[in-house]
Amino acid sequence: MKIRTYKAQTKWLEGTKAETKIREFKVIVDEPLELKGTNTAPNPVELLLTALGGCVALTYHGYAKRCEVDIEDLIVSLEGDMIPGVWVDKAGRERRGFKQIRYEVQIKTKAMEEKVLQLQKLVEEKCPVSDMLINQIELKGKINII
């Protein structure tokens, strides 16, 4: 199995702002005013929702033909709940991230409901970002002092 490596580089700019370079693209992050930011860009957790929404939408489009679903329009609405400080999960671990993420897909198609539900099931199985959120992954960090 061939592994594809994705890369990004984030540089702190000032205050609560940072810029990430991904290939030839740049993405800025900032915090909202209530989190002592300057509200000039989405914050990292909002970008996580963006990544999930984009991946869900692209996975729908990627598998639509296989399920005989012609998509005329598709919108993914997302929201996530965070508790300031920490919350404790079922295993008793303190968590700082989203407690829950919900999304709803609105799809415009003339396909039969059975085909659309088949597509939905396939998307739930195949979406890489939702897989990373649902299943524990290995995350390694290191620091280089320069």
UniProtKB/TrEMBL annotation:
InterPro entries: KH_dom-like_a/b, OsmC/Ohr_fam, OsmC/Ohr_hydroprdx_reductase, OsmC/Ohrsf
SUPFAM superfamilies in the cross-refs: OsmC-like (SSF82784)
Protein name stated in the entry: Peroxiredoxin
UniProt cross-references to Gene3D superfamilies, sorted A to Z: 3.30.300.20
Domain of life: Bacteria
Organism: Candidatus Sediminicultor quintus
